[in-house]
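step: validate -> pass
step: tokenize input -> pass
step: predict -> running
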Amino acid sequence: MNNSPAPSGSELALCALQTPLPAKLSVNSMPLNEHVIAEQSSQSDAGEQSAIRRALESTARPENLWRGVCAIVVCHAFIWSVAPLLTVGDLHSDTLEIVSWASQLAMGNPKHPPMATWIMHMVLALPGSRLFNLFALSQLGVAIASLFVWRSVRLYAEPPFAALAVLFFLESPAATFFALNVNHNAMLIPVAAAVVFFTLRYLENRSRKDAALLGLSTGIALLTKYEIALLVLPLLVMCVFVPRFRGAWTDARSFLAVAICAATIAPHL
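step: predict -> pass
step: emit ->
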């Protein structure tokens, strides 16, 4: 018989602490260890942030922004061409007036120049719903104006700012409720935007092509509505107060723009 005394409880506890854990129960290899969970969570967050960053960078690319803006403009034009058919009871008196003038082509009318009447004459000759064609004509002008808004802002700022400017324009009364009144004001919107763009680009580049396009767009604007002078006048004043634009007053290409504008409106005069 073994007469050695039994180990005490403290000796058993000390022996247990000195005995290493098996490999399968090692702290560093436990599948649900807090350290592993934290590391996996950190990697997941980093992956999500990277995906978000790539998505934002892709959206901010100029070509993607331009496609997005075009899609929004098309949707806006479609909605504001179709929705009035269901909600508008009567056409505005200005629209009825211009429709009556469009029954015959003329070089002018008692109140307005002839361009809007000519365009209305062609639109009324199109097949399909005349009411839809009228609203679609107005929204086509809004879409063209959006293009020139984009290009005007791009002369001085990056694509995100140009996209923001187009969105602000599409939310303005001129592109929504006022556009339901298919009159000279609605038809002036795209050519007025063109005048601003070609003026700015000519003042910045001083090219003969831009001078010609400025003169042509201003002439078409004058044939649309005389009130375009209220836009041209501030642009002329700007050429006085902005030092780098002052040279346009004596530039021969500026006189080319004036000559083309005069030739454009000459038949009406």
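step: describe -> The chain has one domain: 58-265.
step: cleanup -> pass
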